[in-house]
Amino acid sequence: MPSPEPFEAHATAEQLEDLRARLRNTRWPDAPEDAGWSLGTDLDYLKGLVEYWADGFDWPAVEAELAKLPRFQAEVGGHRIHFVHAKAASEGALPIVLTHGWPDSFWRYSKVIRLLTDPEDPADAFDVVVPDVPGFGYSGRPGHALNSAQVAGLWAELMETLGYPRFAAGGGDIGSHVSRYLGLDHPERVVAVHRTDGGLPIYQGDPADLTQAERDWMQAVAAWGGTEGAYAAMHRTKPQTAAAGLTDSPAGLAAWIVEKLRSWSDKFDQTYTMDEVLTNITIYWLTGTIGSSMRMYNANAAIPPAQLARRVEVPSGFSLFAGDVVLPPRAWLERTTNLAYFTELDRGGHFAPFEQPELYAAELRKFFRPYR
User: Is the pLDDT of residue 277 over 70?
Assistant: First the structure.
């Protein structure tokens, strides 16, 4: 694989003016006066967000802040991968690859990188690698989406190229799935795996063998899918239909993403600034990756159930944040992994590294100490 090259991204004046013109010319839908967030994105909130995006948000300043991260790109397995590679301030740090989910990118870990590379105790330091999954962020858009197992293979190759024959892995959402496959398919390389969720409840045995807590959780996941899972059904089955509108309309893109940020986060209004929300959304807009990111759901839906049901034997740790989506019971994690660490946190949500960076960093330090 060719050596990684430094990466810089600079939106042109033409791109930003086109974005502002589209925002100012948004054709708004109607909405019931009392709908709020009950039917999806709140129209009044969205109008305020779009107005600020068009006339107040300073993308060049945000871009300059993101440029302070040590960012690179490399060809890995035939795919162009953008990634952050932040080395620890001290020698002998544990390398870790952290994988984001949807709807985000390397943005998910932007607040936590420095906390991991330069902790109070140098013995807790990590060399941090945060790639954008193909089809997300500044990585290339594959013609056919990769599934989580294929992405795990790319990460194993990337870490080898960076000089890390052994490393740790962590992630949430799709990143949890990728990290799981790193443990399953590359156990000789991965010292341990940290995740913030238990994935989907795929079980091929006798339901009578499950604990009551596991059965209750599976029912709760099914109920959540019935009321909150419309986005995932669209991603799995007809992503190109949604991509046409979301790639053309920044207001539509914002509505699609911000509703998930709010629904899956803990205390959304107290946690995110408008600039932070728009940073995530603007990365999607400028890279044109909403369609390619959604297609990964379709690729993952084609993974055979037998593969999804494999048990992870690499030591596994879970930090479950109270504001996340339908938290799994400990019994399920013990059934599906070699469970070595389990904590339940009283704050933070689906985007824990961004919502609660100090807490998330502390969890990684505690879990990985025995595996250094």
Answer: yes
> What is the length of the chain?
372
Amino acid, res. 5 = E
Dmax of the chain from CA atoms? Answer: 61
Contact call for residues 315 and 371 (beta carbons, < 8 A) = yes
∠ CA 101-107-108, rounded to 5° = 50
Contact 346, 322 (CB under 8 A): yes
Q: Residue 114, SS3? A: helix
Could you tell me what percentage of the chain is helix, strand and coil, using 3-state DSSP and rounding each to the nearest 5?
50, 15, 35
| CATH number, residue 198 | 3.40.50.1820
Cα 256 to Cα 104, 152, 250, 267, 336: the distances in Å are: 12, 27, 10, 19, 32
Task: Detail the DSSP E strand segments found in the chain.
Answer: 5-6, 71-76, 79-86, 94-99, 126-131, 167-171, 190-195, 312-321, 337-345
- For the chain, what is the total number of helices (H) and then of strands (E)? 17, 9
Q: Which of 55, 136, 61 has its CA nearest to residue 101?
A: 136
Q: State the Cα angle at 358 between 353 and 359, rounded to 5°.
A: 75
Domain count, the chain: 1
User: Which of 324, 323, 352, 356 is closest to 199 using CA atoms?
Assistant: 324
Question: Tens digits of per-residue pLDDT, 212-246?
Answer: 999 999 999 999 999 999 999 999 999 999 999 99
8-state DSSP, 207: G
Q: What is the domain range of residue 275? A: 5-371
